């Protein structure tokens, strides 16, 4: 019997949802990258050619602080003001993410996806949870929720 990485080898061990979710997140990133960001030209669609977007700035400061990215020669160390600047951008980034998620949920519903399918994609347990999340997001983002039915 061959082992499937998505299934435990012991039939009496429950699946680990966090591991399954992590594998799905990785697979999702790889799929989108391969299909929509494989070339320099495709990747340029996502970045402003002369300015760093708020989410990129927050991520950059975080990566530099954590050591996930290295400073270039002559580049100043991340200081307290850089951290404060990144923290100041968090509400803007959160608002942008809320708007993106609300819009994506509306488009998914417009393409005929069920709340169950959407719940699976979001890692939520029930269709009701997905629908409630959509309602909260549309209220926070100030988007139109009429297509939520």
TrEMBL record:
Source taxon at top rank: Bacteria
Low complexity biased stretches: 1-10
Region (Disordered): 1-21, 130-149
Name the record gives this protein: DNA-binding protein
Source lineage: Bacteria, Bacillati, Actinomycetota, Actinomycetes, Kitasatosporales
């Amino acid at each position: 019997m061959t082992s499937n990485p998505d299934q435990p080898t012991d039939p009496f061990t429950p699946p680990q949802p966090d591991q399954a979710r992590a594998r799905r997140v990785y697979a999702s990133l790889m799929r989108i990258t391969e299909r929509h960001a494989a070339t320099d030209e495709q990747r340029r669609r996502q970045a402003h050619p002369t300015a760093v977007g708020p989410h990129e700035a927050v991520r950059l400061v975080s990566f530099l602080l954590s050591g996930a990215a290295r400073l270039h020669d002559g580049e100043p160390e991340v200081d307290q003001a850089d951290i404060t600047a990144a923290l100041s951008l968090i509400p803007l980034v959160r608002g942008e993410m809320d708007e993106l998620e609300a819009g994506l949920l509306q488009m998914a519903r417009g393409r005929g996806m069920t709340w169950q399918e959407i719940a699976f994609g979001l890692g939520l347990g029930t269709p009701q949870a997905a629908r409630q999340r959509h309602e909260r997001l549309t209220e926070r983002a100030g988007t139109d929720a009429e297509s939520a039915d």
